[in-house]
Amino acid sequence: PDASGTALSVPKAELHMHIEGALEPELAFECARRNGITLPYADVDDLRRRYDFSNLQSFLDLYYTGMNVLCTAQDFTDLADSYLARVRQQGVRHAEIFFDPQAHTSRGVALETVLDGLEASLATSQERFGISTRLIACFLRDRGPDEAMATFEALLPHTGRITGVGLDSAEDGYPPEGFAPVFARARQAGLHLVAHAGEEGPPEYVWQALDVLGVDRIDHGIRAAEDPTLLRRIARDQVPLTVCPLSNVRLRCVDTLGRHCLPQLVDTGVLTTINSDDPAYFGGYVGENYRAVQREFGFDDTALREFASNSIRASFLGRDERERLL
Ligand code: ES4
Ligand code: ZN
């Protein structure tokens, strides 16, 4: 049975999406045109045909090439508007949006341009789309701890514009522990802390994100399912996992959706949320992720509502705002 559209209609928060990963090919070519940039792809269809990834790195190569067309504040505004317009029809009432400062500053786009552009969209997201929004600045772990600290210093005058910091990009070989100093400073600045861990990397990286960085949530965390002690810890402390099922399939972190550990997480009592990661690249926005796991695992309305209420409970909204959405 069709579970009566609950996957799309239930009020939910999205807690794991990279705004640069919401860049649809059509907008990429539009930004390229108006900025006088030539993309190394013939057209929209040619670009879409390349969305066939063998691992995280093969995706990241395309992702960082694609975002070269984002140059002006207007580009970032259009990008955020495009995302919000799509997820408003999927029950999203709150979004905590990642962005990658270093992916832009390293190619000469100022942090202020990125923040001003995103904010021009997000400042009115509630009025226009019925979606409250927050920003989370992520450090690119493959550029190392020193550059992360320099990025944090550049963010310091703007900490009022972000709700937290995260850690993303290529995981294997870049353990969380090296980022302990910058995460400690972010904590002192009153920011929330998240980190990608256990997407491709081993359970040890999830332990480090918890015990060394002291994160509030784990992004992905699926390889925690390999370590029963770790999984019990995550369930006991109700550390939210922001799981991205279609991403995990498309990046071949799991063989098939049917082999995904999502049911195991739920059965173990983990505070599990469902998210899209990079919706333009991985075959769907958050609603499509809910639909896919519903179809694959036969989750009923109650189970889908639980994922949605988990997402609101796991958000960085204040108590009153969470209550309003639950
Ligand atoms: C990402 Cl899927 C994924 N993993 C790690 N870092 C990322 N940045 C954007 N998408
Ligand atoms: Zn991610």
UniProtKB/TrEMBL annotation:
One Pfam entry name: A_deaminase
Binding of Zn(2+), residues: H16, H18, H196, D277
Residues binding substrate: D278
Cofactor requirements of the protein: Zn(2+)
Keywords attached to this entry: Hydrolase, Metal-binding, Nucleotide metabolism, Zinc
Top-level taxon: Bacteria
GO cellular component annotations of the record: cytosol
Catalysis performed (reactions): adenine + H2O + H(+) = hypoxanthine + NH4(+)
InterPro entries: A_deaminase_dom (IPR001365), ADE (IPR028892), Ado/ade_deaminase (IPR006330), Metal_Hydrolase (IPR032466)
Residues at the site labelled Important for catalytic activity: H220
Domain Adenosine deaminase as annotated: residue spans: 11-326
EC number: 3.5.4.2
Enzyme class name: hydrolase
Cofactor binding annotation: Binds 1 zinc ion per subunit.
GO biological process, one term: hypoxanthine salvage
UniProt-annotated catalytic positions: E199 (proton donor)
Single GO MF descriptor: adenine deaminase activity
Function comment: Catalyzes the hydrolytic deamination of adenine to hypoxanthine. Plays an important role in the purine salvage pathway and in nitrogen catabolism.
Family statement drawn from the similarity comment of this UniProt entry: Belongs to the metallo-dependent hydrolases superfamily. Adenosine and AMP deaminases family. Adenine deaminase type 2 subfamily.
Protein name, UniProt field: Adenine deaminase
Organism: Halopolyspora algeriensis
